[in-house]
Amino acid sequence: MKALIDKLEKERALSRDEWIALIGGRSETLAQDLFRRASAVRRRCYGDEVYVRGLIEFTNCCKNDCLYCGIRRSNRSVSRYRLTEGEILACCREGYGLGYRTFVLQGGEDPAWTPQRLAALVADIKAAHPDCAVTLSVGEHSKETYQLWFDAGADRYLLRHETADDAHYRFLHPPEMSPENRKRCLWDLKEIGYQVGCGFMVGSPGQTPAQLAEDMLFIRALEPEMVGIGPFIPQRDTPFGGRPAGTLELTLFLLGLLRLMLPDVLLPATTALGTIDPRGRELGIMAGANVCMPNLSPENVREKYALYDNKLCTGAEAAQSLRSLAQRMEGIGCRVVVSRGDHRKL
Ligand code: 5AD
Prior knowledge:
By secondary structure, the protein is of the alpha/beta class. Helices cover 42% and strands 12% of the residues. It has a single domain (2-337), classed as Aldolase class I (TIM Barrel, Alpha-Beta Barrel).
């Protein structure tokens, strides 16, 4: 197994069978060695810097019906909300004062937010904060729409591919969604010139090491600037509400592998990781991550963006607690910086 990690670090790629062997054959000692190397690689590219993004969950209305997701359209127990332009701009203003220089607008696929309306909002945010990056995370759209938002000033786009295995994708999604369209979106975003983030849930129902190997091969081929991974966590009102959550252990191991495969990738220690373990964020950074995305949404809507049960949105999770997050990062030899935190080509 150690030879496979050597090879990954040197060649930044493994074959399908090697990925399966490495992920399936992992151990505690192997993980410790992996994390040491991943931290060194992160340090070589980004020093001790950890980047923060202010996450604004601006609508929990969604036309999709993904089987794992708490804000799926058929979940009648969600109290739906949409922030107004004014409220979103107020979040950015507050975030700017706190030291955020990237705003992530994340939401369901909400038809009330037409492409034009969102483009106008992006332009307004960029006009108010020209030194900030805007990241969009609003799902699958046409290439023309992605281009419209890019031209309005959007810098980055997050769209998790969720799983690169076609059969597994169909298992996790309703019939009207397809793995082909998901991947098409990511390639379109790359071509337009966004800094692109893909990603997947760890331990989603039915996931096998062979499917995780597909994820690693897909990510290698796409070469995204960002990769978001976090454990699957059941949400009680969804069809997968009774399934077990993904583990901290496997998520950390995959973060380490991703850092070795893509040394300069922007890799968040996600909210889901912080939710399954109180030290999840720190452990994620020590495994190779270099980004945190605290919640900058207005207090009164935070718990309505319930993708899964017990989702963190207070304490170090709240954008307002940047000081405490910074202290936690200092505790592991890292430094939260006031910066756009753009991707750096190594
Ligand atoms: N557990 C963990 N992550 C989830 N997401 C959606 N539902 C869940 C869940 N139950 C993730 C998906 C999506 C992102 C916004 O949140 O990967 O892309």
